[in-house]
Write a structure and sequence with these properties.
19% strand
Amino acid sequence: MQVTKRCSVCGRFRAYDANDRYCIGCGHDALADACDCGRAFDYALSEQGPIHCPRCGRAFHQRDADYS
């Protein structure tokens, strides 16, 4: 089963297998399959430019502060 996940280190959205733990782009184990509010990232793959969570408005066009 494929799931859209986001890497908190490099900020990229990609389709992964449900059990994948490491980012294909940077190799870190910082993948998340949902926003902190619980909204799944399924909407993000087809979007261009800055992306925000449609439920809570969180910005995803940069790295998370924990990994800056």
